[in-house]
Amino acid sequence: MADIPLTHIQTETMPAGLKGIAADLSSDQQAFKNVSWGKAMIWIFLLSDTFVFSCFLIAYMTARMSTSVPWPNPSEVFALEIGGVTLPLLLIAIMTFVLISSSGTMAMAVNYAYRRDRRTTAILMLVTALLGAAFVGMQAFEWTKLIHEGVRPWENPWGAAQFGSAFFMITGFHGTHVTFGVIFLLIVARKVWRGDFDREAKGFFTSRKGRYEAVEIMGLYWHFVDLVWVFIFAFFYLW
Amino acid sequence: MTEIPLGPGGMSADVEDVELYHPHSWITKYVFAQDAKVIAIQYSLVALGVGLIALVLSWLMRLQLGFPGVFEFIDADRYYQLITMHGMMMVVYVLTALFLGGFGNYLIPLMVGARDMVFPYVNMLSFWVYFLAVLILVASFFAPGGPTGAGWTLYPPQAILAGTPGQEWGIVLMLVSLIVFIIGFTMGGLNYVVTVLQGRARGMTLMRMPLTVWGIFTASVMALLAFPALFVGAVMMLFDKLLGTSFFMPTLYSMGEQLKYGGGSPLLFQHLFWFFGHPEVYIVALPAFGIVSDLISVHARRNIFGYRMMVWAIIAIGALSFVVWAHHMYVSGMNPYFGFFFATTTLIIAIPTAIKVYNWVLTLWRGDIHLRTPMLFALAFIVTFVNGGLTGLFLGNVVVDVPLSDTMFVVAHFHMVMGVAPILVIFGAIYHWYPKVTGRLLDETLGKIHFWITFLGAYAIFFPMHYLGLMGVPRRYHEMLESTTYPASAHQLNIFITIAALIVGAAQFMFVFNLAWSLFRGREADGNPWGAASLEWQTPETPPPHGNWGPHVPVVYRWAYDYNVPGAARDFIPQNEPPPAVVAMQGHSP
């Protein structure tokens, strides 16, 4: 893809400014030059998924603003008591740190994949998957703790029932995204490790040849899930 | 059209070459098929089947309204279930699936000169997930308590409370089915959008695409952005129902007892629903706009008037439709100041829409009009759409809408504008593209009878409803009680409407017969029976085989509307016919 020169685009005859952008976008064959189908697809999917998460978050904010009962204080609810000291949002801080770090290892994996360094790529993807699994694990711990304290989707001991509803729904939906990400990370890592992309082995379901680009597509999804968490962190835990 | 210079001949495309999956058994060829054309037919047949079920449901509703009390099995509960299922099936499972899954799958790859959709495997999954959604929906007919009777808008709190039919299982199956449908649609939608953006043939610029592709493309983008709101609404209501959360449920008293719910906002659901629901109107309308433009151009032998403006109008309508949703909620109790904003944006949509109508009419002006069946349906669409659009001006204004809310006037309006009008286009499109799909023409005589009964019958059904609505006859009431509120004429009109509906419905079965009969006995058609210029008519074989184009993907030299060009040999020039200069330079023949 990337190494095919686009000879039929004659830059000197292209109009400048906004018109140039429009002419470029609407020119033949591809709206986004040298963007592969897979990457175009994941970007559009993520745009759609952004709307899903936006709707969830806006719905939560509406519920929080319109409920007549006080909203539980997140920094107290999500505090951990360690050695007699109450540390607000400690677990959430660690989870956020873990997830953002995993974005770093993912970015490195993409880089190594394009250098065709199979071993390092696979290891970095495994580390990413491990960090993701750790995130989900900590989330499971947090859910267990809250459930023991009496938080349910329909009630909680501290205030508005919508607190538990929104908490389980939004973190659950995000956690599902992370879990799917971990599963696909493992699948792609296995393919990289076995050299499927070098041998152009056909996919099990799609019977299409895989490419190292799969690592980057995986990475785009992973960074998105990470970014969504930042918004959940800001709007749910810090507000 | 300005000529965009092309590279040297050789004519291989710069876009990725599709790795086509070559089926090796009957099952992979026709059942779990990855060919977009087979998937299109699967989508269309299932959608038409659902459409026939929904048609029978509407018959039952009309029987009750026309002859209240005669059919005792249609009690109030049953009537609500009929309304709900008819509405939801028609809007989501018929129109959306048929335009995007059916026409989108068949026409996009052929019209943009691709061998297939970009992700055939995902495309296949899309159909089967859609099929699963249909099964779940139909299953609710057999569930204890029957399907939900909450109205197609599924407004909480009543949708999940005792007293609404189907609140045990029906509503759960409906919500699950919608969630599954949205997942399936997303798989298909990504395919349609990426194929149009990144998978076109050499020379196929965006501004050379037929308007059909523009309409389906814009609608797919909108659907990818609008369905998430419905998805979220459905998930939250499912939790309210199954987990006992109170997202949409305020504090309620029933039979003197306080229910377990409290603190939620029913208005929130309405906002989520209509943030999906209004774009949905245009998700159905934009493909119809696009298809009708092509039908008119081909059968009037004229280029579409103002192509560029047509494209921009499609995009403008698509964008505007995301900021008008609360015009469905004027009487919901939302902040009254919102009404001013949403009425304004709603009326602004009339501008691009009017541009489109004027351009269709101007395309016909001095055209060489052939009144074949597809053209009749296209012309009927213009009339019907204008009609439904004009009543939209009434309902878009808050002060006029308030007294008309929840009357038969609303029913008449949206059936005209997003029921009858798109269905007319669907019929026209089927008559138009059937020879490409099967190699045979649909029977013209049956087609004309079908057209006149459907067209005149639709007016016989929905015109009187405007009058009923102005008299204040409410919708969703399973009978007008014997009161002096409504004159005898209202009752007589209801009988008239019911008889018209029975006849129009019966005519649709004639259409189904025509589909089946012409498949074997129809007049054989060559590859391009209408003399159309767009790419799907230029395939080397008809019906097009797997891979569409044989060894060479076509190269596009012009837009899709070169009809009656002065000096040309024929009255149309196919999109892939090179200009004389190119032929001379390359010694190349198409």
UniProtKB/TrEMBL annotation, chain A:
Q: Where is the Heme-copper oxidase subunit III family profile domain?
A: 42-239
- Give the matching Gene3D superfamilies: Cytochrome c oxidase, subunit III, four-helix bundle (1.20.120.80)
Question: Is Disulfide bond among this UniProt entry's keywords?
Answer: no
**Transmembrane parts of this sequence:** 40-62, 82-110, 122-141, 161-189, 218-238
Cellular location(s): Cell membrane
Keywords of the record = Cell membrane, Membrane, Transmembrane, Transmembrane helix
Q: InterPro entries, per this entry?
A: Cyt_c/ubiquinol_Oxase_su3, Cyt_c_oxidase-like_su3, Cyt_c_oxidase_su3-like_sf, Cyt_c_oxidase_su3_a-hlx
Main subcellular localisation? membrane
How this chain sits in the membrane, per its record, is: Multi-pass membrane protein
Concerning Pfam families, the annotation shows: COX3 (PF00510)
Family membership, please give it.
Answer: Belongs to the cytochrome c oxidase subunit 3 family.
The identity of this protein, by name, is Heme-copper oxidase subunit III family protein
Q: What is the organism field in this record? A: Flaviflagellibacter deserti
Automatic annotation (TrEMBL), chain B:
Q: Which UniProt keywords apply?
A: Electron transport, Heme, Iron, Membrane, Metal-binding, Respiratory chain, Transmembrane, Transmembrane helix, Transport
Q: Which Pfam families match?
A: COX1 (PF00115)
Q: How does it sit in the membrane?
A: Multi-pass membrane protein
Q: Which residues cross the membrane?
A: 38-60, 80-108, 120-143, 171-194, 214-239, 281-298, 310-331, 337-355, 376-396, 408-431, 451-473, 493-517
Gene3D superfamilies registered for this protein in UniProt: Cytochrome c oxidase-like, subunit I domain
| Alphabetized InterPro entries for the sequence | Cyt_c_oxase-like_su1_dom, Cyt_c_oxase-like_su1_sf, Cyt_C_Oxase_1, Cyt_c_Oxase_su1_BS
Task: Identify the residues that the record assigns to the Cytochrome oxidase subunit I profile domain, covering every copy.
Answer: 20-557
Q: Where in the cell is it found?
A: Membrane
Lineage: superkingdom: Bacteria
Does Transit peptide appear among the keywords? Answer: no
Q: Kindly report the protein's main subcellular placement as a broad class.
A: membrane
Member of which family? Belongs to the heme-copper respiratory oxidase family.
Protein known as: Cytochrome c oxidase subunit I
Q: What is the lineage of its organism?
A: Bacteria, Pseudomonadati, Pseudomonadota, Alphaproteobacteria, Hyphomicrobiales
